[in-house]
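From the shared-data thread, chain only:
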Amino acid sequence: MTKKDRIISLLEENGQMTQSDLAESIYGDKGHAPYIYASLKNLVDRGFVFRRGRFPSYYFLSNSNDSLLEKTIVKKKKYRDISIDDITNEAVEEAELLVRKTENYGPENELITRCLQKFPTNTDPDIVAMKVGLIDITNSTHLSQHKSKISMVELANIIVAIPNVDARIEAGDPTVVNEIARSNGKINLFSFASKYCCYHNRNLYGRDDYSILDTVLKEYLPLYFDDITKSQLQKWQDNFDYKSYNDYITCKLDELCITVDHRKRKFDHFVWYKNRK
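Structure, as tokens:
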């Protein structure tokens, strides 16, 4: 991934960021801000990124340039040809088996299940912090890149403070994802929140109420389905509208006549396995 692509990806994930924020996410150090100046200025000059304010300036993607931006990214990235993928019950089940046989995912999924069964509730900040760390590491949500915006202690306390959080996750309440994603108002944790709720709902309670949204799904769902765009997915994320995203996945699985058990989780695995890098 080029530096420009990395900048675009970070702005898609976080909405708006300063040059120092971008440098810290890319290099782990705000002192590297000058290293991204040329790439950032080029994106601004070409109209893909907008700048607001001064001292500091905030950078964000322009909705009006979504289509142009996506075309540019598609040209730079070599997307896999998904035309050969038939999304059927058989194909989804086959992908699920292959995912579970991978050296990393299979054992890690079992580890997550064991840990959630040993520590099912989200009432102790110390326990929640350990579960957050486990899901973060195994799912590459890169929370450590955002330590300047939210700490592990703060995130754990936020989750613990959510009213009736365990009963609501067990019941598949989509609003819990939004509450975790909003966190402290300084960062959007939509992707992590969808995974945190999904793992508890699926691995602990045996249900299938939550659909994960991550980078692979954001990139490939618009290639599989003509009625969704990357910009629409981003708008749902920016607006903390998890229900619309989750309902969309449910609708598409209904249209495809996917009837296997835990179909949302298995569809996520299907898209990931087919298009993993």
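The chain has two domains: 3-76, 89-275.
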